[in-house]
Design brief:
CATH architecture of the largest domain: Roll
Largest sheet: 9 strands, antiparallel
Distance between the termini: 68 Å
Shape: elongated
Number of strands: 26
CATH superfamily of the largest domain: DNA Polymerase III, subunit A, domain 2
CATH class of the largest domain: Alpha Beta
Strand order of the largest sheet: 14-11-12-13-26-25-24-18-22
Radius of gyration: 25 Å
């Protein structure tokens, strides 16, 4: 293998494919990136056996070939190079030489035959979605997925395709986030699958840095493939049935409160300082004289009670909520104001942006008062 490519292209490619690598002591080759020089391109592949990322850059290929190289070492080294062009050559003993006008180094790799075969994806159902919309939907949902692997279906994000809409849903059974997106092109099929939350989070990072306008999603029986320009991210799907979450979303509530997001977030942060020793429990009380009160019981460090001006419709009401669950969602409300809905102290609270057509709903289960 022998080729010449641009340092900037090489650096970008290594940054992208490194996202699929998690440190592995059992199979050292999984710590490596597969480099394959073919035609007029240098192809990159990485996998942790659950997620795989593939990418390619243009290259002047003199001799075709392949090798796997330690991802961390190679990406760190290439990022420090100042030269425009880099020559990569494979020599005896699975070693590559990186040569540029100002430097030359040798890096020992592992034979490409030891790298796991990334299965070819059989496209069955294809969707196209606006990049910025999917990026926002991921940001607004993935944080609510469970980090506990005892219930695998909750450690993923539920993708629900129905005609011209795509819903992303995540829950850890204490809170739930749902985002609805309109598809660019409708489909006649109904598709449901659960994508691992780690995959979705990495996809979000790729989307946030992408200049591509559109993302292609391909879903098969047990795999999903996301295509963002020249980047391909493939992942296994989580087996099992996502819980019937619609049942816990309140159809109606007794109290609706409109409040400014920034003011609300500031008060919740302040009160949460005193709630840490009380399982993050804060009391939210809405009264129809236009006040929203947020407080915590007395703890070892003290107590706090704050009031906000709010537009309250319906009954006076009170509920206890986890302060951190509230703060998590406030980072992603893309509106100056939000709507907080309370039915009673035993029913979930509903948080939504006060903006028509946002398609975003966030549910928090109550704590004991």
């Amino acid at each position: 293998m022998k080729l010449i490519c641009a340092q900037s292209d090489l650096d970008r490619a290594l940054t992208i494919v490194s996202k699929a690598i998690t440190p592995n002591t059992t199979l050292p080759v999984l710590n490596n990136i597969l480099l394959k020089a073919e035609g007029k391109s240098l192809h990159f592949s990485s996998t942790n056996l659950e997620v795989a990322i593939q990418y390619f850059i243009p290259a002047e290929v003199k001799i075709e070939g392949s090798i796997t190289v330690p991802a961390k070492l190679l990406s760190s080294y290439v990022s420090l190079l100042k030269d425009d062009k880099v020559e990569i050559s494979l020599v005896e003993g699975d070693t590559i030489i990186l040569a540029s006008p100002s430097s030359q180094t040798k890096i020992k790799g592992i034979n490409a035959h030891e790298f796991p075969v990334i299965p070819k994806f059989e496209k069955e159902n294809t969707l196209k979605i606006d990049t910025s919309e999917l990026d926002l939907a991921i940001a607004q949902t993935v944080f609510a997925a469970s980090t506990n692997t005892s219930r695998p279906v909750l450690s993923g994000v539920f993708f629900d395709v129905n005609k011209d809409t795509l819903k992303l849903v995540a829950t850890d059974s204490y809170r739930l986030a749902e985002k609805t997106i309109k598809l660019k092109e409708g489909t006649n099929v109904t598709i449901q699958c659960i994508v691992p939350a780690k995959t979705v989070a990495e996809l979000g990072k790729l989307l946030s840095r992408s200049e591509e306008k559109e993302v292609e999603i391909n879903i098969s029986k047990n795999q999903v493939l996301f295509v963002i320009g020249d980047i391909q991210l493939m992942s296994r799907l989580i087996e099992g049935k996502f819980p019937p979450y619609e049942k816990i979303i309140p159809k109606s509530t007794k109290t609706k409160t409109e409040v400014l997001v920034d003011d609300f977030a500031n008060v919740v942060r302040r009160v949460s300082l005193f709630a840490r020793e009380n399982n993050n429990s804060i009391k939210v009380s809405a009264t129809n004289d236009g006040k929203l009160s947020i407080s915590t019981d007395e703890t070892k460090v003290g107590e706090e009670k704050a009031e906000l001006n709010a537009k309250v419709q319906g009954e006076n009401n009170k509920i206890a909520l986890n302060a951190q669950y509230l703060l998590d969602v406030l980072n992603y409300i893309q509106s100056d104001s939000l709507l907080l809905e309370i039915d009673d102290k035993l029913s979930p609270a509903v948080v939504q942006p006060l903006k028509d057509g946002s398609g975003y709903v966030y549910i928090i289960m109550p704590l004991k008062i």
